[in-house]
Specification:
single chain; alpha/beta; Purple Acid Phosphatase, chain A, domain 2; 6-stranded mixed β-sheet; 15 helices; 12 strands; globular
């Protein structure tokens, strides 16, 4: 089969996409196929647990293209805080709620496991329960659609992370033998050839096994390997093997704009032997508004936040940014209305003031962070996240005695090893300063 590859970068900010699935004149229907690649849409951290605003836009834009299927590069949930089955279920339920337009349209969705979904036993089991192949009971499998063969691999099998080896490798060899006269697309989470970040913990962590995998792909003329893990767009050709990193559907971006650090997804159109890979960037009003408010450009931040609220009224982040903007710009009526809306979204006044304070701390608006976190602290004296952020705030304000007090109160309130180690480190640093 002829392997023509064309990569089209659409250099505009996609607000919405029309239906591009129009079979070319004279081309047999079984030779025409379009699909979407997205992924790495997980929440930023445990304190912003909802699916990112931009992921909702990615889903809407992808569904509008009417693809035959969608591939997701993994890391659906934050996962690192899933210390119970209940928490794991909650995080995957939130992902599915944001993904509902894909399900409602009946578009098949194929997902590879990311490292965040495999971090705890609860997250791993929740992922397997929902997304392993029902026919084989495995996290790696393949399927055909028209003239194309799709292979879903798992770079996160337990005790086999960052490698394709053992039974999975033997299965892959057998599977590739039956792919004559088909385009071949491979999906897995970790790149064979990482860029910008994760340079030591991707498939190159085991270079001999990575090279064996790459050689196998080249032997069978794999058209493209789609990966995530690094939150950028990157297209590379290494010794004849094509790889696209498509990790820009919502997780915190890596790299500069020029390095591919922008939100995006891919639309792939197959026309017989020809394949077009269309990179679709998306404008992230929440990210832009956050940057503007950090720079003191308040009215611009408010305008972008209000635009995002029109697109997704019930998402907390644009409402948080707008409400902070109203406070800074001294619009008391709008600020009061913003607090009311946030309470209906977040469920409690304490959570509203915590989220406002957490955002302001992140945006280096320390006076406002102090105001909001103090309000949250007055409502609860035993909230880990409030005390932890108060400690970070007081550290930033060089109020070391108060920071030490807050961290010591927060430490026994968490079971999370990451936060325990971080707080212990901060306590040691503060005690050395005092």
């Amino acid at each position: 089969m002829k392997r023509n590859v064309a990569l089209f970068v659409l250099l505009f900010l996609v607000i919405g996409c029309g239906n591009l699935h129009t079979p070319p004149l004279g081309q047999p229907e079984d030779q025409v196929l379009n699909f979407v690649v997205m992924g790495d849409n997980r929440p930023a951290d445990v304190f912003r647990p909802e699916q990112p605003y931009i992921y909702h836009k990615v889903v809407a834009a992808a569904v509008a293209l009417n693809p035959a299927l969608i591939l997701n590069t993994g890391d659906l949930v934050f996962g690192y805080d899933t210390l119970s089955q209940e928490k794991a279920t909650e995080e995957f339920d939130d992902f599915e709620a944001a993904t509902a337009p894909i399900r409602e349209k009946g578009i098949p969705l194929y997902i590879t496991m990311g490292n965040h979904s495999g971090y705890t036993e609860f997250a791993r089991q929740a992922f397997r329960n929902r997304y392993e192949n029902q026919d084989t009971g495995r996290l790696y499998y393949s399927f055909d659609v028209k003239n194309s063969h799709f292979i879903i691999l798992c770079s996160e099998l337990e005790n086999e992370e960052s490698q394709i080896t053992g039974e999975q490798m033997e299965w892959l060899k057998m599977d590739l033998k039956g792919t004559k006269d088909k385009h071949i697309f491979v999906l897995l989470h970790k790149p064979l050839y990482p860029k910008i970040k994760h340079l030591e913990d991707s498939m190159n962590k085991h270079p001999e096994k990575r090279d064996a995998l790459a050689d196998l792909f080249k032997q069978y003329n794999v058209d493209m390997v789609f990966v995530g893990h690094v939150h950028v767009y990157n297209f590379s050709v290494v010794s004849g093997l094509n790889q696209i990193i498509a990790g820009g559907s919502g997780a915190p971006l890596a790299g500069t704009l020029g390095e591919g650090g922008f939100n995006h997804f891919f639309h792939v159109i197959i026309n017989g032997d020809d394949i077009d890979y269309r990179l679709l960037p998306l404008q992230n009003e929440v990210l832009l508004a956050t940057q503007l408010i950090s720079e003191g450009r308040i009215q611009g931040a408010i305008s972008l936040a209000e635009k995002a609220i029109e697109i997704l009224p019930a998402h907390p982040m644009p409402n948080i940014i707008a409400t902070v903007g109203y406070k800074v710009a001294e619009h008391p009526a709008k600020y009061a209305a913003g607090i009311t809306v946030l309470q209906s979204i977040l469920g409690s006044e304490e959570e509203v003031y915590f989220r406002l304070g957490e955002f302001c701390l992140d945006a280096k608006l320390l006076d406002l962070a102090d105001l909001f976190l103090a309000k949250a602290l007055n409502m609860t004296a035993n909230s880990f996240k409030v005390l932890y952020h108060c400690g970070k705030l007081k550290m930033a304000e060089n109020q070391y005695a108060i920071a030490l007090e807050m961290y010591k109160k927060a430490l026994p309130l968490t079971d999370n090893d990451y936060f325990k180690l971080d707080i212990q480190k901060q306590i040691k640093t503060l005690e050395e300063k005092m």
